[in-house]
Amino acid sequence: MDDDSLMFELLKPESVRKLLQEHQSGRQDHHKLLFSLVMFEQWWRGIKSNQRAAHQANSRWNSDRSKPDSKSLNPAPTL
């Protein structure tokens, strides 16, 4: 867990670091909570990644819609 952890958008970094320090020193056994925080971080990164991908796809789709279609510029001759 570093300063770039996305969980810190929702959780206080000091509290998470305190849990980790207590666990590493052997004063407390926080392995279940720390494991849950790691899994939360992975899940949150997946959510953020999917949001970015959806936004990029939406931007491309909107960009493509604003460009004229080649068929509309050169309509097929009617017989």
C-alpha-based Rg, rounded = 24 Å
User: What separation lies between the terminal Cα atoms?
Assistant: 69 Å
Helical/strand content category = mainly alpha
Roughly how much helix do the residues carry, as a percent range? 55-70%
Which spans of ≥5 residues are poorly predicted at pLDDT below 50?
none
Biggest sheet descriptor:
none
Shape: rod-shaped
Total number of beta strands: 0
Strand fraction = under 5%
Order of helices and strands, N to C? HHH
Mean pLDDT: 85
**How many helices?**
3
Which structural traits does this protein have?
mainly alpha, 67% helix
Quick summary of this structure?
The chain has 79 residues and is mainly alpha-helical.
Report on this model:
Helix content is 67%, strand content 0%. It is an all-alpha fold and 79 residues long. It contains 3 helices and no strands. 0% of the residues are buried.
